[in-house]
Design brief:
Blueprint lengths: L12 H18 L4 E3 L10 E7 L4 E7 L5 E6 L4 E8 L11 E7 L4 E5 L4 E6 L7 E7 L2 E6 L3 E6 L4 E7 L7 E4 L5 E5 L3 E5 L4 E6 L6 E7 L4 E6 L4 E6 L10 E4 L4 E6 L5 E5 L4 E4 L27 E7 L11 E4 L9 E6 L4 E6 L11 E6 L14 H9 L13 H24 L5 H8 L11 H5 L6 H14 L2 H8 L5 H10 L5 H14 L4 H14 L12 H7 L1
Parallel strand pairs: 24-28
Antiparallel strand pairs: 1-2, 2-3, 3-4, 5-6, 6-7, 7-8, 9-10, 10-11, 11-12, 13-14, 14-15, 15-16, 17-18, 18-19, 19-20, 21-22, 22-23, 23-24, 25-26, 26-27
Length: 563
């Protein structure tokens, strides 16, 4: 994607800097995502989105529910993820979620198979590629992968071995498309080539585009190809029949560079521009087309065919402000034109919406403008809260330093020692009365912890040797019974980031808000505990940010400013 440069003069001052920052953010959100919908892998319709995000220590793969916007699972790895695709485990008779796999093509040349149900990588395919795997695609029990040097590998997913390797010699390859029978593959860099898999013979070549191709799709029962490239303001439709010409069958024009494309079974085409506008052509990528008209009656100009329909989203607060559409997909049920799934917002929290493009006559609406509220900061209070959110916000106290006093560290240390002595005395009294101590209660909940050594009692009480599974049980029990001692045992593990993440990930949804409320109360009471509490707060918000109730946590904005 072309690098966007923001020019500003020194005399612009703060206003110019703010404007440049907004432009940079908009450009970052408009970048083409590495993502894939699961249509066909788990069900006939799309239900999940696999989205790759850059992290501090590497890339993260997020599995997001397109119906609720919630995150189902997340995989964090040190390797860079270049491509993703959905598939099923070999021999799986149904499309249940337990058999679903997500293939990840890595910069290292390996391919990893991730199971969202297990939240783990179940297999690594390696040894065939030496360059970055830029595209992956499932076909039945086989997986096809393409590296940047034009090498196509067919893998047997069950055994994890490479069955076939085909060197196309296409330098800078970046897109792959596999036929339904797995006998033909199309690869693309600036140009597009169609290859016979079994004979390793090139069948056809098209000049393609002036920039690297980022999208290749079949159309008209694999009798046509649809392609789009970086910086190009048009989509090409190519004839993929044996006697195909080297020129495009149709050129579909847009007002800005195309970032994503989709094709319906009927031949209708969707394209999302970098300007955040959705363009639609009705049944234009069909098997046969006359030289002077199309099935859709699309209007043709000197360059190509303009869109039959255009969809824009504007802000209800500022009608002149455009809210960009990032992705768009036809429904995978039936002809696929009755509904279109659009994605807005951002990679942190995508917003999904289904709409209809067709009018009463079955043709696409010429121009459709949607008025929507802009997406706010997830950590701030929404201007329109539900009753439940307002109740929760009323229960939380906003942090204030009013009435705070400076304490003497020496005196505070003495008081802490006295409190520790009192706690030890209380524990001894409970033991004398036959009441289980905190260590005893944790041992009863421990699974996988070393509880046989009596010398570990103090360590168990401090929560230093407990596994994530045990901490989940301890945390749920502490929240259920309002036991502060058990909760402090869990919080003492803040220095173990992997344990913190696994514990929060395993926390049932019903306990997320009570846990956050306990964290906020402790933070407001003792801000000096930020080092211990913030890892839990950040991790909980990151893994459960899609809960709509979290928008009512008004105290988070104050926490965020002080960190």
């Amino acid at each position: 994607m072309v690098k966007k440069t923001v020019h500003r003069r020194k005399s612009q001052g703060a206003h110019g800097t703010k404007k440049a920052t907004k432009t940079s953010i908009a450009a970052a959100e408009a970048e083409r995502w590495t993502c894939a919908f699961d249509g066909g892998a788990t069900s006939d319709a799309d239900s999940s989105l696999a989205l790759v995000r850059s992290g501090i220590n590497g890339h993260r793969l997020r599995i997001i529910d397109v119906h609720t916007g919630t995150q189902r699972s997340e995989h964090a790895g040190a390797a860079k993820i270049c491509s993703v695709a959905w598939g099923r485990q070999p021999g799986a008779a149904d499309k249940g979620s337990a058999h679903v796999l997500v293939a990840m093509g890595l910069q290292s040349g390996n391919v990893q198979l991730y199971s969202p149900a297990r939240n783990a990588v179940v297999k690594t395919l390696e040894g065939a590629h030496v360059d970055a795997v830029v595209a992956v695609e499932f076909r039945g029990d086989a997986l096809f992968s393409l590296d940047s040097n034009g090498v196509v590998v067919q893998w047997d997913v069950a055994s994890g071995t490479a069955q076939r390797e085909m060197k196309t010699g296409l330098s800078g390859a970046c897109a792959l498309l596999v036929a339904a029978d797995a006998q033909r593959v199309a690869v693309a860099s600036h140009r597009i080539e169609l290859w016979d898999v079994s004979r390793a013979v090139r069948l056809h070549s098209w000049p393609g585009h002036t920039a690297p191709v980022h999208t290749l799709l079949w159309a008209a029962d694999e009798a046509a190809l649809v392609s789009a490239a970086d910086t190009d303001r048009h989509v090409h439709v190519w004839d993929a029949t044996p006697d195909a010409e080297a020129r495009p069958r149709a050129v579909l024009t847009t007002d800005s560079p195309v970032s994503s494309v989709d094709v319906a079974a009927s031949g209708s085409v969707l394209a999302v521009g970098e300007d955040g506008v959705l363009y639609a052509w009705h049944q234009i990528a069909v098997a046969q087309r006359s030289t002077d008209s199309t099935a859709s009656g699309a209007r043709r100009n000197a360059i190509g065919y303009t869109a039959d329909g255009v969809v824009r989203v504007v802000s209800t607060a500022t009608p002149t402000q455009s809210l960009p559409i990032l992705r768009a997909r036809f429904s995978r049920v039936g002809s696929g034109e009755d509904s279109v799934l659009i994605v807005r917002g951002g990679a942190v929290k995508p917003l999904f919406e289904t709409l209809s493009l067709a009018g009463p006559d079955g043709q696409f609406e010429r121009e459709l403008v949607l008025n929507r509220e802009p997406q706010g900061n997830l950590l701030l209070t929404s201007s329109r809260q539900t009753d439940a959110e307002q109740q929760l916000a009323a229960q939380l106290q906003v942090y204030s330093e009013k009435g705070a006093s400076v304490t003497d560290p020496v005196a505070e240390g003495v008081r802490a020692s006295q409190r520790a002595g009192d706690d030890d005395a209380d524990e001894s009294a409970r033991a004398a009365q036959g009441v289980p101590t905190l260590a005893d209660r944790i041992k009863q909940l421990s699974v996988g912890a070393d509880t046989t050594d009596p010398a570990n009692g103090a360590a168990l009480a401090a929560g230093l040797r407990l596994t994530a599974g045990t901490l989940v049980r301890v945390l749920v029990q502490s929240l259920h019974t309002a036991d502060p001692e058990m909760l402090e045992t869990v919080l003492s593990n803040a220095s173990r980031p992997n344990i913190v993440r696994d514990t929060v990930l395993g926390l049932p949804t019903a306990y997320v808000l009570p846990f956050l409320q306990q964290l906020f109360e402790r933070f407001h009471a003792t801000p000096a505990r930020a080092t211990q509490l913030l890892p839990w707060i950040r991790c909980t918000l990151a893994l459960h940010a899609a809960l709509s109730h979290l928008q009512a946590v008004v105290a988070v904005s104050g926490i965020d400013r002080r960190t």
